[in-house]
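Deliverable D5.2: sample structural annotation.
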Amino acid sequence: MFFTTSFCSFIHLRFSTEPATNRPRRPCGAVTCSHFFQIDCHNKFSMILTRLSNIWQLKKSLPLTFAFLLGYVITQAQFNESVKAQLIKEWQRAKAYTLEYLDATPKDKYGFKAQDSIRSFSQQMLHLAQDIVIMVSTGAGKERIWQGQILEQRPSAQTADSVRYFVIAGYDYGIDAIQNIDASRLEEKIRHRNFEETRFAWLLKAFEHQTHHRGQTTIYIRLLGLRPPPEKLF
């Protein structure tokens, strides 16, 4: 404040051509042009100093802002990779669990139905395998296999050996697709039919779907008088 006032006073004295001895005396409280000039000069100079101060503060904060953004990007990338690794682990567990269900059911009982109006054990497993491919393909963007086919309606696919082949192929397709997806793309939105979800959400729904149909076959095994595999959380 002292500096700006002194500077403006200097400007006023420097450019005032009227000698001090010849200046008429003005009544107390009178407003002069030079007074306005001094106020205007003071305000403009204060504004300049404020802007310079703001620029300096911004320059000082830029490295911190850059470091924060860089840290966020790195952290987000690490999180996405962690999610991807966990997905792979869970799908490998699901595959092993489903194979335990196949092993628990006698080969000559794959055509068994809990009721006549529902899928047989083999049809449940074939449906499970094919929808893994459909949903994971949507989420991961990998080209589908078995296009144009409905496995559960193929008579030649109903045997125990065929069911096992298709189930393993379905899980292997899903695991490979997730292993090769760019983790940074998991948050991308994908539309399939009338639904739009992130890639990550499609992969979760694929996992939920296979869990649902494997769970349905539990009652088939019990109705056969057998014990289903125990829970496999890990």
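Annotation notes: Strands lie at 189-192, 195-198. The domain at 83-223 is CATH 1.20.120.450 (Four Helix Bundle (Hemerythrin (Met), subunit A)).
The annotation will be released with the project's public dataset once the embargo ends.
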